[in-house]
C-alpha cells in the first residue's frame, strides 16, 4: 500500500495534472466533480479550472471510456496505447449484427469528423447514414429505451471513432478524437504497454486483478502477462526491474472521493478494506461507491460532503476510534478538500447516513 500510495501521487505529490492522471492509469469521470477532486488532491496548487483547462483548452487530457468501459479522463498522449489495448476487448453487440455495428461505427466517425453532437443529434446523423433500423428504440436504459445504434457506443469509442466533447447545456456531447489528436492510431503493443503502466501503479498484481480492473477476460489477461516483461513476487507480478519498495509502512490520513483510482484498482480487497470496512465501504464487493477515509494505508471510515454557498460540511464516520493525535491530520485533509473546492470547511465526526453515490 505504501508503494501504491506513493506511485499514485498521494504521499509523493505529482508534478502536473497529466503526470498524476497517467500515474492513476486514468481518473474515473462518471462524476466529473469527483474526478477533479481526485486529481486536485494529488497536485499541490491545482484548481478545478486547471483540470478543466487541461481537458477542454490544452487538450492534454481526453474524456473517453477507459477501464471497464466507464468514463475516464486519460492523458491525450496515451490514447494510442489505450486504443491498442481496447481494440482486443471489443465484444459483440446485443442489439446489432456485426455488419450493422460496422455501419454504425462508420456513421459515427463520419458524423463527428468535424462536429460536436449530443446523443439526440447523433441519432439523427446515424439514422440518416444507415437507415431507420438504427433509430429503433429497443435498448433498455434507466426506465426508458435508447436507439438501437447506441449499443455500439463502447465499440465506437474503442475503435477511436468518438470521445466526449464539452457538454451542451446539461447534455453530454461527443466528437472525434482525431479533431484534437490528428493522426491518432492504435498502438499494436497497447495491451503490454498498458499492463506495464498498470503494474507500476497497482503492482504487485495478478492476471485476475488486471482483468477485473480493465473489464477483460482472465484468459486475455493471461496472454498479455505471458508477452510482458514481468517477474513474479509476493502478491503477484511487477515489471522487471521495478522492484523497489518503501522502507516504511504507509502512514498518514487521507480523504479520497468517489471512485478514486487508488481505491478502485487496489487488490486484494481484504487488504485495503479490513474488518468492518469490507461491509460498510464496499457495495457488493465493488469499491468506489463511497468516499473513504484512509488511515495508514487502509480504509478506516467513510465521509460525505454537503455544500451550502461557500460553506462545506464534511461528515466523517470513523470505523472504531481515531486517536487524538490523528485529529489534526484529518482536519488538514478536510481543509485540503475544501480549499480545492473553494469553500470554507466544517468537520463533523459522526455517522454518514448518505448511501452509495449520494
Tell me briefly what this model is.
By secondary structure, the protein is of the alpha+beta class. It is 37% helix and 21% strand.
Please describe what this structure looks like.
The protein folds into three domains: 2-6 and 8-84 and 186-239, no CATH class; 91-158, no CATH class; 253-349, Aminopeptidase (3-Layer(aba) Sandwich), CATH 3.40.630. It is built from 15 helices and 15 strands. It has helices at residues 2-7, 17-23, 32-40, 48-56, 79-86, 98-112, 119-130, 153-158, 190-202, 207-214, 218-227, 261-265, 269-272, 277-280, 324-340; strands at residues 27-28, 61-65, 71-75, 117-118, 137-141, 144-147, 163-168, 171-175, 230-233, 236-239, 253-256, 292-295, 298-308, 311-318, 344-349. It has a five-stranded mixed β-sheet. A three-stranded antiparallel β-sheet has the order 1-3-2. Strands 4-8-7 form a three-stranded antiparallel β-sheet.
Write the layout of secondary structure elements.
Elements: H1 2-7, H2 17-23, E1 27-28, H3 32-40, H4 48-56, E2 61-65, E3 71-75, H5 79-86, H6 98-112, E4 117-118, H7 119-130, E5 137-141, E6 144-147, H8 153-158, E7 163-168, E8 171-175, H9 190-202, H10 207-214, H11 218-227, E9 230-233, E10 236-239, E11 253-256, H12 261-265, H13 269-272, H14 277-280, E12 292-295, E13 298-308, E14 311-318, H15 324-340, E15 344-349
Parallel strand pairs: 14-15
Antiparallel strand pairs: 1-3, 2-3, 4-8, 5-6, 7-8, 9-10, 11-12, 12-13, 13-14
Helix pairs in contact: 5-9, 6-7, 10-11
**Outline type:** globular
Helix segment tally: 15
Q: How many DSSP-defined strands?
A: 15
Task: Specify Rg, calculated over alpha carbons.
Answer: 21 Å
Largest sheet report: 5 strands, mixed
Number of domains: 3
Give helix and strand order, one letter per element, not per position.
Answer: HHEHHEEHHEHEEHEEHHHEEEHHHEEEHE
- Class by alpha and beta content: alpha+beta
